[in-house]
Amino acid sequence: AQKITQTQPGMFVQEKEAVTLDCTYDTSDPSYGLFWYKQPSSGEMIFLIYQGSYDQQNATEGRYSLNFQKARKSANLVISASQLGDSAMYFCAIGSNFNKFYFGSGTKLNVKP
Amino acid sequence: ETGVTQSPTHLIKTRGQQVTLRCSSQSGHNTVSWYQQALGQGPQFIFQYYREEENGRGNFPPRFSGLQFPNYSSELNVNALELDDSALYLCASSIDRGQETQYFGPGTRLLVL
Q: Could you say which of A6, A24, B20, B39 is the most buried, measured as most Cβ atoms within 10 Å of its Cβ?
């Protein structure tokens, strides 16, 4: 079985500053993927970034980067230069060839002007 | 390239009724997954379809059933609706099974009275 833990129910960040959203995971699968999604109040889940378990380098996509520490089983999302439009729920998820996607409980990010 | 679409966007049913939700996968994707997201929670995996066959199921009772068609679109059917079935139902498609990135539709909001 797989498990995702997001320990920050809510976070505040000042506009233009960086913020880190925490995610830890547990899996027995040798190969897996870690994903971050953004969910605005409209409800749609928007894919942000992917990290494969065998990737040597941390993934980056524009202002998003994933701080992957395999030994610690953590996959934190870093958002640089926060914008007001970044205010949303953020979900971490894990998927593998042997198990389906499991999502964490989410972190609500509020960006303050 | 057309993204994942879902219909209807909103639905109100009464307890005991049956409902069918529909999802069109993204072009080139052969895998569709369905999720239930209760208010304030992360999405919960219902089941996945790969090339018209069920490819895994979460902890949902048999009254949740599905289909995938030759064009890889999919339906989620829920019989004998209960009040706790009120949720946002999300459909996601991916290029393959396993740890491929899943792309989500806008969801269907179901309210059971």
A: A6
